[in-house]
Fold this protein.
Amino acid sequence: MITIEAVFKAVLDKGDKAFVPYIMAGDGGLETLKEKVLFLEEAGATAIELGIPFSDPVADGPIIQAAGIRSLQAGTTLKGVLETIQSFRGLTNIPLVIMTYLNPILAYGVEKFFQDCEEAAINGLIVPDLPVEEEVLLEEAAAKYRVEIIRLVTLTSPLDRIEKIAKKGNGFLYAVTVTGITGSRSSFHDHLGAHLLKVKEVSPIPVLAGFGISSPEHVMSMIEYCDGVIVGSKIVQLFSENKLEEIKALIAASKKGNTLPAF
């Protein structure tokens, strides 16, 4: 199975930066998931983050919350998402990362969840409400079924904690760029660039910035300080508006030769 590490290395070695779009699985019906994944891969995404709808999200902003509600209303379940991915996984050659809260995994059954992830060739897992100290709940099964736990650090995380989390060393490190929920921003903290550089200094794995990134200009500015970006709310919005060329423009901004002055 392809690995996140190998794919990211190939991208960075070319001089490009990583671009990971987020989509809400089941928004528009699970029958649209295959089409979206294949489109994003063709457009040049490095990996894809697949959100699982949840009734009580804590990190999601209005756009992703609304997409989650639509997905739940369409009858989307975690099992349904994994079965759908398995049905077309052979057509893709891109890392897929599941983003879900802890409760659905516990309700599913930890061992069964990771077993089904392996069968669907899921490469990574993001659980935003799982502190690193509680990863014992998942890490044995994750290792057994070769699913990499992707960890998050924030603007308020002390540097020693960032270093501790980074050295757990799976896939990439998700550096949250705002002190709040997901959603588009017109500007970022004045010291964000310096913060990202500090995170990169202590991280043995690629550092990707996420939350609030919503334009090609944001992408090109952010990648001056890190190894790539994760874009969620804007991708979800553009898919809902069928603005596929704008999605392509966002992804293209991460490629070598696209430069703007850093913020």
